[in-house]
Design a protein that fits this description.
Length: 853
């Protein structure tokens, strides 16, 4: 290993061996003469000095110098702990350096072992830090020095050997260039030439001293270097302390961060606690809300159940009425069946009678023919017998005569007598044979007579059964009669009950209908229907009002009526609600249905459109009256259609040329209203209504050409009179159904109208306020003695249909537009007043009847 260590000059040092030391032998004289110990001590001192001097100049660069870059942020302890074995010699060197005095002078004794340990510390390392290399070169130098002085090197260190010629040349060269010092080459002196040798030594000593001076210079340089290194160390230490300070600061920051972290954690914990508490509160709140919801739901459920119960009750009532209707239908069916049975029975009886008659005729014929046959046969046989008898008697007489003749010749003709007797015997046999035949004939006649008898008894049985059936039929007829009577009683009862139901609902009822906005209408009003799913009685409107100080406020206007129809309700739904009133007209009551509201609110649409109240009412009346036929009722119906315009009546079913010309008078007589010179069309079927409506609409159009927008400024009244008679009970009833499309209720200002328009305005205002007056007077009770029917043509026309014996329904029509809000509110207020009027119980129109009480 040591054999391959390179020398600073590139030559190799031979491995330390005794041979090597022996090689130096011939070149060195024994030092016994001079005092070998002295020489050796000098050489040793020199060697030690050179070794000390040969301390590596630049080899003490501490590895830590290079470290700060990477290890800047690392704590010192960490830096120290990461020092490897390679760093330790440098540390030792550093500590050695630190032992220099304040002057910066290096103490050789301290440096020497340091270098030594540095050199020894890394034996066998071929390449490594500068320190190792420097230490090795220093070692090399010291060894060389020692070798030169002939002193054996320690076993653990390399021992210098005598240089070869080549090495010597290099040594010389080195010497010149200030390399490692070596004694000068000179011719070998003889052993005895101690003086010469001393001279050489003296010379070498001088050279060495010179060299020492050089070395001292080098030492100074090294000291300088050490100082430099020291400065560097100080810098490094400053850096180190700076780093330490950084580290401390960072640690401080870290601690601060840790504290922040703790604070943050504490805050988070508090927040978490708060959140948990909030969550608990929210959960409680939710639980409470859920409980409330459940309770609300239960309440709602209960109310729904209640509603459903009511609905169920209502449905049950309806079912009951349907059941009653079914009963009626069943009775009707029964009656039809009974009729059928009766007709079948009659035809069966007729057939039976025919069959009986035919059988009787057949029997009679048979009997006659039999009797004829029997009598023919009888007479035939009797004739035959008589003939035979006469023949016999003749023969007997002739025989007797002959006998007489021949008696004499009796004896003579005894044989002839015997023959004659024999012939007589034969004849008797024939006669008896004939008698048997006659008897047979008689028995046949008897059998025939028996057959006739049995046929007669069968006919009698049949007669009996027919009589029995007749008995059943009459019993069934009686039952039918009873059922019909019951049915009639029930019908009367139904009418009474129906009337009572309507009475309970009030004789003036007010329905409110809001029409849908039309396509072109863009400013809808805000209208609510709060209980549409329920009773549908409420409506709420919202208007905006400006206070005196200019603040806009929204005002609510709630109203309640007998029924409120929202814009989605169609005419069919509305008719369902009024159909019972229409039924009342059939039951003999006067019924009046008004459509009240401003122009364009939907009055005409509700009353006269194709599926409006007028066509549907007539249709229902026809349908119901047809059903009542089975209960003995037959009805006659007649319709009139009049227009009240400017306090004049126009016949809308008359000639168009008579409009505004013919004067129609109103007469009241015993609860009946008659119109003079007004067309009344008998209605025989619902299809006739189309013609009635067409004619009325034509005349209205003609009237409209006379005055613009006349339909809005006139009242139209369709009057349907119904007269019913029950052919079975003799009951009679008369009812009137008045369907009125009123003029637009908008407040017309007198100031803006002139001429015809002013007249129209005055008349509309007059008639509508008269209607209001009549209704409120009717609601005044018994104290009010006078009802001002005569204040307008309209109220006078409807006198018998407004009040005590009538049923009244007012539709208050509502426009859905914001622009009409004020008019709408006025209409609704008027309707509210009407709905609060109680006009007493309606009475059936009294009609004298054959058996009415
Ligand atoms: N329920 C409804 N559904 C659909 N359209 C309707 C409804 N009601 C009214 N209308 C429409 O609104 C418009 C005005 O209605 P209508 O002529 O019936 O009002 P009005 O009150 O009779 O007016 P006037 O007093 O001028 O006769 C018409 O075009 C009509 O078709």
């Amino acid at each position: 290993m040591h054999s391959s260590l390179p020398r600073p000059g590139g030559s190799r040092l031979p491995a330390p061996s005794s041979a090597a030391s022996a090689a130096t032998g011939p070149s060195l004289q024994p030092l016994g003469d001079l005092g070998e110990a002295t020489v050796n001590s000098r050489i040793g001192t020199l060697g030690a000095s050179t070794s000390a001097i040969a301390k590596p100049a630049g080899g003490l660069k501490p590895p830590s110098v290079m470290r700060p870059v990477g290890g800047l942020k690392r704590p010192v302890s960490a830096l120290d702990s990461t020092e490897t074995a390679y760093d330790r010699p440098a540390q030792v060197a550093r500590s050695a350096i630190s032992q220099t005095g304040p002057t910066g002078q290096l103490r050789a004794t301290a440096v020497k072992p340091a270098i030594k340990s540095a050199a020894i510390a890394r034996p066998g390392v071929s390449a490594g830090s500068k320190i190792g290399a420097t230490a090795k070169s220093a070692l090399g130098r010291s060894q060389t020095g020692m070798a030169a002085r002939g002193k054996p090197a320690p076993a653990s260190t390399a021992v210098a050997v005598a240089p070869t010629a080549e090495e010597e040349a290099v040594g010389e060269e080195k010497e010149k260039s200030g390399g490692v010092w070596a004694p000068k080459k000179r011719p070998q002196r003889a052993g005895w030439d101690v003086k010469g040798r001393l001279q050489d030594i003296e010379e070498d000593h001088r050279a060495l001293m010179e060299r020492l001076v050089d070395v001292n210079e080098q030492k100074d340089q090294s000291s300088m270097k050490v100082i430099e290194l020291e400065t560097m160390r100080a810098t490094l230490e400053t850096m180190n302390s700076k780093l330490q300070a950084d580290l401390n600061r960072e640690q401080g920051e870290l601690n601060k961060l840790r504290m922040d972290l703790h604070e943050e954690q504490r805050l988070r914990r508090i927040e978490a606690d708060d959140a948990r508490r909030q969550l608990l509160n929210e959960t409680d709140e939710l639980r409470r809300k859920a409980r409330d919801d459940i309770e609300n739901l239960e309440r709602k459920n209960k109310s729904e159940v209640h509603d459903l119960t009511i609905k169920h009750k209502f449905d049950m009532d309806e079912l009951r009425s349907a059941f009653d209707k079914l009963k009626v239908d069943l009775a009707e069916e029964k009656r039809r069946n009974a009729d059928e049975v009766a007709s079948l029975r009659a035809s069966a009886a007729r057939e039976l009678e025919d069959t009986k008659q035919r059988s009787r005729n057949d029997m009679l014929e048979l009997k006659n023919s039999m009797e004829l046959e029997i009598s023919t046969m009888k007479s035939k046989y009797q004739t035959e017998i008589a003939m035979l008898k006469s023949t016999y008697e003749t023969e007997l007489a002739s025989v007797k005569a002959e006998l007489k003749v021949e008696t004499a010749a009796h004896n003579e003709t005894k044989d002839e007598l015997a023959i004659a007797q024999k012939m007589n015997k034969d004849m008797r046999a024939t006669i008896s044979e004939q008698s048997v035949n006659s008897l047979n004939m008689e028995s046949t006649a008897r059998a025939l007579r028996d057959k006739i008898c049995s046929l007669e008894s069968t006919i009698a049985d049949r007669d009996n059964s027919i009589r029995d059936r007749d008995g059943n039929v009459s019993e069934m007829r009686k039952n039918l009669e009873l059922a019909m009577t019951k049915l009639r009683t029930e019908e009367t009862l139904r009418r009474k009950l129906h009337n009572q139901v309507l009475e309970l609902k009030g004789n003036i009822r007010v329905f409110c209908r809001v029409r849908p906005p039309l396509e072109a209408e863009t400013d809808p009003a805000k209208i609510d229907f709060p209980d549409q799913e329920d009773e549908a009685k409420d409506i709420k409107l919202y208007s905006t009002e400006r206070t005196t100080i200019g603040i806009e406020t929204v005002k609510e206007h709630p109203f309640t009526f007998d029924k409120v129809f929202n814009p989605a309700s169609d005419n069919n739904l509305i008719f369902e609600e009024i159909s019972q009133l229409v039924q009342s007209a059939l039951d003999g009551y006067n019924v009046c249905i008004f459509a009240y509201g401003q122009t364009g609110s939907g009055k005409t649409y509700t009353m006269t459109s194709k599926d409006g109240m007028i066509p549907q009412a007539v249709d229902q009346i026809f349908r119901t009256s047809a059903q009542l036929t089975d209960k003995g009722w037959s009805y006659t119906m007649e319709g009139s259609f009049v227009e009240v315009y400017n306090e004049n009546l126009n016949d809308l079913l008359g000639k168009d040329t008579d409009i505004d010309k013919k004067k129609i008078e109103i007469r009241h007589d015993k609860g009946r209203t008659m119109l003079t010179e007004c067309t009344t069309i008998p209605l025989t079927g619902p299809d006739m209504m189309e013609e009635v409506m067409r004619r009325a609409s034509n005349n209205r159009m003609v009237a409209a050409t006379k005055a613009n927008e006349r339909s809005s400024r006139s009242h139209s009244v369709f009057i349907l009179k119904l007269a019913g008679t029950n052919r079975v009970t003799g009951e009679r009833c008369e009812g009137t159904l008045n369907l009125v499309d009123l003029a637009g209720s908008e407040r017309l200002s007198h100031s803006q109208a002139t001429g015809d328009r002013l007249k129209e305005t005055q008349n509309i205002n007059k008639s509508l306020s008269a209607l209001g007056d009549v209704i409120s007077a009717l609601g005044g009770g018994k104290e009010v003695k006078h009802i001002p029917y005569r204040n307008s043509k309209l109220t006078f026309l409807l006198q018998n249909s407004l009040g005590g014996n009538s049923k009244t329904l007012m539709f208050v029509m509502v426009s859905p537009l914001m622009a009409h809000m004020n008019e709408t509110l006025t209409s609704l207020k008027f309707a509210k007043k009407v709905s609060q009027v109680n006009i007493g119980t309606a009475k059936k129109v009294k009609v004298e009847s054959s058996n009415s009480p």
